[in-house]
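Following up on my earlier message about adenosine-5'-triphosphate. Here are the inputs again, as you asked, copied directly from the submission form:
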Amino acid sequence: MRWTKFHLYTTREVPADAEVISHQLMLRTGMIKKTAAGIYTYMPFGWRSLQKLMTIVRRELDFSGALELQMPAVQPAELWMESGRWQKYGKELLRFKDRHDRDFCMGPTHEEVITDAVRRDLKSYRQLPVNLYQIQTKFRDEIRPRFGLMRGREFIMKDGYSFHASRESLDETYNEMEAAYRRIFDALKLDYTAVEADTGTIGGSASHEFMVLAETGESAVVRCPQCGYGANVEKAETRELSKVEPGKEEAMREVATPGSRTVDEVAKLLQIPGALILKTLIYNTEKGLVAVAIRGDREVNEIKLGNALDVQHLQLASDEKVREAIGASFGSLGPIGLPKDVPVLVDRSAESLRFFACGANQDGAHFVGVEWGRDIKPETFVDVLMVAAGDGCPRCEGTLGMHRGIEVGHIFKLGTKYSQAMQCNFTDEVGQDHPMVMGCYGLGVGRTVAAAIEQNHDADGIIWPLPLAPFQVLLQSLNPSDAAVSKTADELYAGLRAQGVDVLYDDRDERPGVKFKDGDLIGIPVRITVGAKSLADGKVEVSSRRERVKELVAVPEAIAGVMERLRASG
Ligand code: ATP
Ligand code: MG
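Thanks, got it. Here's what our run produced:
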């Protein structure tokens, strides 16, 4: 492709509203244009990269036996009413009416549509399993669209759905999809990790997220360097925490703690470690107020808590609400003497505490010398702990590290949530009907390209991993008005194209400095530069964007040199 015939306009300025580097570089290289908040036009340079990713995705999914189809972006409300999600899905679901006043939505995901299609075709166990996928535009009215393609409102997703006659069959396909995802992210040369993810209120079966590790990632993940255990913090577990020294053995008694509200303040006043204080929080849920107690030096994981309580909405109760219900403020709360209608959940981290302190549910007062069993009837201990870096791995003797990650893919064992609600049934060998067992498999196309840039750039611009590069080779003619330079560059262009190389030929009438700056910015992996000076010696320069190793090569060897570098970079 000749640059003069291509639509590629770069800018030097860093766009003011782009916070993360991938967003800045996508705008500066003209890959995308913002059309509205969270809605982008993919310009030719950007679209080429997305298409390369989609080709790899298709190759690996087709290889694994999944079948491609295409579902509509506009979906009728009826299907969403059948699954129950018309009411449950919040404002992310963009709803509208057609001219006949019928309700529709823009598809944020396609479980309903695919389940409806499959139930009309498949009736018998003999027809199962089936694994269907599409690459398609989704719409989610995200509350905070940001970071460009990373969190858009309109975005391209590969979404796949599998249907099975048994859990074992689902397990098999799930494992194949996990392997396919690994092949995809390996092929892209991304530094990623697959971690256990929260399955939310859908149920106990498995879910894994594929995380590209990057500082700017919106997700926090823990990893054990020793055994490879990895999990989203939303779901992460830890080995039992090391025991806290018991407090002074004594009968429970009340002590005055005026003005001390935080764990640190109370610990200082009572001269005990914060870990020996039972911290109590009150949450507001759709089931009413709930008290949660946890070791004073640790935090509550609200995702785990929501799952433990089986609630959708969970929020720390306001101080007024707490005062009204309990008669004390945050800072003096404890599990002893709470109103009967406020159930107490205690995190496992507090189970081994002995002769500990907790709020007395009166402002400025705490209990000390508290014992489980003696002073508080045995409570249910649950795991609602927010795991922290340095905690013990739940699978081995290792220590967990904390990392930031960009969630690029998510695979999920759905079970029968949708098939049951929508009567997507099959008949087994003995003629009995069962809901099909389902899996679903998502991969964010634009987000993956953005994540690749987050991981592959320097101060001058993008450093494309070859498989995602919009072009493999950048051919620069430094003095296009010089006949010899133009002739050599034209010949190299033809020669590279004849070898099937994706080459961008910078034939613009621009100064060399501009061409070098643009070359660094757009980050094409291999560069070949034709300039009057070296050409006088019969040479051109071949270099790679990542290593920046330059080499003068005789013109007849230039194409072989480029091919060698392409092979080396994968
Ligand atoms: P997140 O927690 O980041 O909102 P999600 O759990 O809602 O993601 P899924 O419903 O599992 O995402 O969607 C599958 C994949 O689609 C994600 O792994 C991600 O790569 C991509 N994706 C989801 N939401 C967006 C978005 N707003 N913009 C771009 N890609 C997205
Ligand atoms: Mg989301």
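One observation from looking it over: Residues 109, 140, 142, 151-152, 155, 157, 407-410, 442, 444, 446-447 surround adenosine-5'-triphosphate (ligand 1) (CB under 6 Å). Hope that helps, and feel free to reply on this thread.
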